[in-house]
Amino acid sequence: MSLLTWHHKYAVGVKALDHHRNIFIDVLNELHAAMMRGKAQSVTGPLLLKLKDHAQNHHSTEERILESAKYPGLFQHRERHREFARKLEEFERRHKQSDSTMYVQLLHFLRDWLDDHMLKEDQHFRPCLNELGID
User: Fold this and answer.
1) CATH fold group of domain 13-131
2) Which end of the chain is more exposed for a tag (fewer CB within 10 A), N or C?
């Protein structure tokens, strides 16, 4: 059972960015499935690395698009991306220290952040990109 399922409401109408969102959801669901099987310890490290790499790629792509569109909220949006990266670093540190309390917290953080970020913050720039015909 998936923790979060792709839905068109998460889309911003830019194919590359929407594809990236699907990958975020897939990683979240991989972590959830591993936890349900009692494999969180062995799977979390590689998934965190995958998530960090993907987030860096996605955020830099998104920020380049927003910059080219002259999106007025870019500075604040970029800062939210930095907060996400810092939080992932914190979870990675806790994982390396064998902090078993972090797995459920990581799962909840990712679910809440992705859901909130995709449904609220990213939807603010959707009209700007769509108006410019960026797809």
Assistant:
1) Four Helix Bundle (Hemerythrin (Met), subunit A) (1.20.120)
2) N
What are the backbone dihedrals phi and psi of residue 58, each rounded to the nearest 5 degrees, phi first?
-60, -50
Question: 103, 66 in Cβ contact below 8 A?
Answer: no
With both helix axes pointing from N to C terminus, report the angle between 40-68 and 122-131 in degrees, rounded to the nearest 10.
Answer: 40
Six-digit token string for 80: 């939210």
State percent of the chain over pLDDT 90: 50
pTM of structure? 0.89
Q: DSSP secondary-structure letter at 8?
A: G
- Closest by CA to 120, choosing from 87, 73, 83, 85, is 73
- pLDDT tens for 79-130 read 999 999 999 999 999 999 999 889 999 999 998 998 888 888 888 998 888 8
Domain boundaries, the chain: 13-131
